Amino acid sequence: MQAVMTGFLILLLAINSIMIFKLRDMKxxxxxxxxxxxxxxxxxxxxxxxxxxxxxxxxxxxxxFTFFYxxxxxxxxxxxxxxxxxxxxxxxxxxxxxLFWITVMESAAFIWGIFSERxxxxxxxxxxxxxxxxxxxxxMFYAYAIAGYITLTAAVVVLIIAATxxxxxxxxxxxxxxxxxVVMVASRANSQLKQQPILMQxxxxxxxxxxxxxxxxxxxxxxxxxxxMRFVADKLNDGIVLYxxxxxxxxxxxxxxxxxxxxxxxxxxxxxxxxxxxISEANVENAWDGKVMSVGRxxxxxxxxxxxxxxxxxxxxxxxxxxxxxxxxxxxNYGEMVHRANFDELTGIYNEAHFxxxxxxxxxxxxxxxxxxxxxxxxxxxVFKELFGKEKYDDYLIRTAESLRTGLDHIPKCKYGRIGESxxxxxxxxxxxxxxxxxxxxxxxxxxxxxxxxxxxVKASVYExxxxxxxxxxxxxxxxxACETIKGDYxxxxxxxxxxxxxxxxxxxxxxxxxxxxxxxxxxxIYLQPQVDKSGKLIGAEALARWVHREDGLxxxxxxxxxxxxxxxxxxxxxxxxxxxxEKLKEWKEKGRDDLHISVNISARDLYAxxxxxxxxxxxxxxGIDARNLxxxxxxxxxxxxxxxxxxLVEKLQAAGFEVEMDDFGSAYSSFNMLKDIxxxxxxxxxxxxxxxxxEVRSHAILKSIVDLSGELHMKTVAEGVETxxxxxxxxxxxxxxxxxxxxxxxxxxxxxxxxYL
Length: 758
Known about the structure:
This protein has 758 residues and is an alpha/beta fold.
């Protein structure tokens, strides 16, 4: 019997040695280190027991018992330290632990006991018909036994605390090891109470050690991984289902039914009924891996990403796993995102980026087709938006887009889109483009927004794409340039682009870039055109801006003033002219000619860009001139845009001593009606106002009425554009006060003006 038990112990020792080597190869953590120490501890109690089984010499057996109890004391401490580490608590250095010093004292006491035999004695006893050495403890031995029980109990308590404080998924990890240690304690207590050979303790502890290693290293982590993966799989709402080789259900996630859109999972435990339903509705072959397929259900079309994998071992099928992910929402969201990226949110037609993309592709794919690019844009769209509100403005844009769909979707090779605030672009084959139909379609939408107080005007342009390899931005810009060119020209509705427009646009951009330096270097100068009274006496002049360019020479005002009025830089130019006029008035005053005035123009943009009153008052103070000598000309159209505000401005300027002239009187539709609301000092009438008519009698009668009316309202009249003696005599006859025009002189440099008139 001893030989059989010895062989069994050798087997346990071999298994233990294998565990030691296996643990050495694993990732070296504190828990693995404690397990390895425990494995060495088991070896420390097996070897003495083997000696006890084989020896017949009492002294050798006594020594073996002593070393067994010393090894067991260290082993219990190793179990405790493993339990603390395994539970995730921080360990003290071993020499700082009270258990370490208790174990040291126990070891020293047992070594001393070898010579004194004060702890225990040994004797032969019969156990199941066999003779074994057994221990007969003395009273001092029980202190050692109690210390061992306390250590093992502490290990169990640590594990129980860890289990109760952890998530449910971790409880098995701690409670399983705690139960094994309880078994070890029970085995030891049972062996001691019944005075059985320590062989039973050794076998129990060795087997429990194997189970602890298996639990800590293999079983618990694998279970943890399985439960974690199951937990994750269920939370994903993905359908994960596993069948064995005979298609029997082995595993299914809670999200399976949700993923495939079915109620419950009944019926899939024996056959893949639900799965087959999805595949049959998808109408695909058996090549599903990673494919997104659409599945029709009663409430619509759904999309699934379906993957599968056949599981095999040794070349034989052991099962199949299917992963079904419902990607319907993702695909719909992606579709909406793509739509938002490519289409204008308000109108639903192509936005700028996508319009450039599709038209570029259209040009590349049709090299033999001649195309045109059109641009249509609202004249003064900001005024329209301000008058009628954003909702009405958006409604116009939406209706324009609908008109494009209705009129163009049937035309092959035609693309259209919205770019910017109010610009719509169309690219179509030249042969399909009809300019009159194009304008009629524009007018059809625009006329719905015309009122008695506002006429919605839409300008259009056409660029024939003669160079298809140009980038689309350049092509669109050329169409836009032509459209911008005719804005403000009420006689033109549509313009075809030619290279002169591009040349003019580049020239304007150049002037725009050079304006500030031109003002700084004195290139912007005033030219003066004389104004005379009925007797022909010089009473003043109008200051007009001229650009004497250092390279281009004298630039006509028509080339830059309208452009600066559009882009807002006219204010910069006007201030420069006002300052030069004030400088000249100061100079004339110092020479005793403070009887002369200079009229300066105030542009419509100036009324909103700066405080006209503060600026003019500060200028006359700065130069020490009389405000009545700086006459201010404001166009009738600028005043009428905001009559109430400008009436107040005119009154303030007059109170400060300025004379205010209304320029271009008669150009607006309600000129005479406006005179009842605003009082100006001078009405300035351009002779061209009546120059185009063939009925001179009627035109002379109207002009006489204006002069008579101004006299009744105590306003002076200035006639500009006087070119003939006949015109002069007529104006004198009707009572006009002041005359200006080529009949007297063209606008001239200041030096020439002074040489001729002063």
